[in-house]
Amino acid sequence: MAFGTLRFRGRIDHLLELHLRQGIDRTPLAILNVLRPAVYQMTQMDGVPAYAAVSQAVEQARLAGGRGAGGVVNGVLRAVGREGADEGRFPQFLDHPIDHLSTWGSHPRWLVERWVAARGANWARTVVEAGNRIPTLHLRPIGVPLDEAVERLGRVGIQATPGSEGSGTLRLEAGSSPEAALEALPAIIQDPAAGWIVSWVGEVSGQRVADLCAAPGGKGMALAGLGATLFAADPSRRRLRRMSGALDRLALPGRLHV
Q: Which helix (H) or strand (E) is 126 found in, with range?
């Protein structure tokens, strides 16, 4: 919920601005921190009833700012729920492209302005839409060729296709269970961009590789899977413990240093 609230903050803040009498800039941060996730729940999370989001937010606001704060939050959230959050309540792209992309598109205004100035509004719109798209789940087999990995996943009902060329990853069909995929074969969840980095390192079999900011460890484990002896270090002991568990799961050699 916190991630989603940040991701849609431009959209959320526009809706709040429509209903906050004193505006966002003059609203105490403690109250905004209650309103923003509540609006996110009401507009983006289908599984949360609006009345539940409002009730919880009002209680939080009262704890943060007293009964008056609870009344403000209640009024604002009920107005958002009553008037809706469809695209028609936002600046329209054809008339105000920068306003549209920074509110409905929920990207920082300064960045949208730079993109529009450099490449035009239509190009900026394409980038914003791509930025808001939920990424496809990718998996990198460890010690298993891609074609064999596709077959093994297919046996448990998971359809997979090769990811971007050179990334060493497989793209799982929408709705696939990552847990089931990881049970079907030794693998890690890895974005193609990270996979390309592993490929650019080149031949590592028999080599010693130091990953100095390693956790959670995807690239390091991929290199270990290609035959490297991995020395992994990270300032977070907690994240290193998670990486150590993944190394054990994959039966990969490695030394972890904090």
A: helix 121-132
Q: Are strands 187-189 and 138-141 parallel, antiparallel or unpaired?
A: antiparallel
Cα separation, 217 vs 226, in Å, equals: 14
DSSP SS3 for 78: helix
Query: Which residue shows structure tokens 């998996």?
Result: 139
Q: Which two tokens stand for residue 19?
A: 């209903």
pLDDT of residue 12: 96
Contact of 210 with 244, CB cutoff 8 Å: no
CB-based burial label for 251 (10 Å; 0-12, 13-18, 19+): exposed
**pLDDT at residue 256 in the model:** 61
Q: State the residue for tokens 């949208």.
A: 112
Give pLDDT, residue 257. 61
E-state strands within the chain: 138-141, 160-162, 170-172, 187-189, 208-211, 229-233, 254-257
For 172, residues 6+ apart whose C-beta sits below 8 A from its C-beta are 136, 137, 138, 139, 153, 158, 159, 160, 178, 181
Question: How does strand 229-233 pair with strand 208-211?
Answer: parallel
Measured CA to CA, the distance from residue 217 to residue 47 in angstroms comes to 33
Question: Mean pLDDT, consecutive 10-residue segments, the chain of 258 residues?
Answer: 92 95 90 94 86 91 87 93 92 96 97 97 96 88 92 94 90 90 91 88 84 86 86 86 84 68
Q: What is the pTM of this model?
A: 0.68
Collect all residues with Cβ–Cβ distance below 8 Å to 62 and sequence separation of at least 6: 69, 70
Give the pLDDT of residue 136: 87
CB count within 10 Å of CB 206 equals 8
